[in-house]
C-alpha cells in the first residue's frame, strides 16, 4: 500500500526541523549553565568579601581593646604599688 508523498514530506520536514534545532538548543543550554556558574561564582566572591570585612572589623576592635586595656593595666599596677607602699 503506497503512502501519499505529502505525508512523507511532512514527516521529513518535522524530523529535519527537530534535527536542525538540536545544535541551537545545545548552545543555549551551554550558555545558560555557564551564566549560572559565573553568577554563582560572583555571589560567592561577594559573600566572602563581606565575611572578610566582618573578620577584619572584629580584629580591629580586639586590637583596640588590647591597646586600651594595656593602659588600664599599667595604671592599675602603678596604683597597686602606691597602695602597697602607702
From TrEMBL:
It holds the Pfam family RebB. InterPro entries: Killing_trait_RebB. This is Glycerol-3-phosphate dehydrogenase subunit C.
